[in-house]
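Session log. Operator J.P. requested a structure for one protein chain; no other inputs attached. Running the standard single-chain path with C-alpha cell output.
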Amino acid sequence: MKARTFWQVGNNAAPDRGRALFLQNAPHLVHDMQFVVPNYARWEAPFYGIGLKVYGLLAGRYGFGPSQVLSREETLERVPALSQDGLRGGVLDRDGQRAMAG
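Structure written below.
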C-alpha cells in the first residue's frame, strides 16, 4: 500500500461537499445534528478538540459551525447519562444528517 501525505488524508476526510447542494436545493432533507465527544483522559480534550477544529476548517463554508470545548459541567448538562467517574469535559461538534426521501 502506498503511503499518503497528511494533505491527502485530510482532503479525503473533508466533509461531503454534496451536502452544500442538499442545503441549497432541499434544506428540509438536511438537519444539523450536534454530538458530544466526552473526555476522560487528559490527552483527549486537545486531541479531539484540535482534530475537530481541523475537520471544521476543511469543511469551510460547507460545515455546520465550529466545534466547541466543553467543561465537565457543560458536558453533563448536554449528556446527563454519561458516567461522571473521571469525566474531564467534552467537545461539541456539529454535522449534517441527511434524511432519505422516498
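Operator note: Residues 38-102 form one domain.
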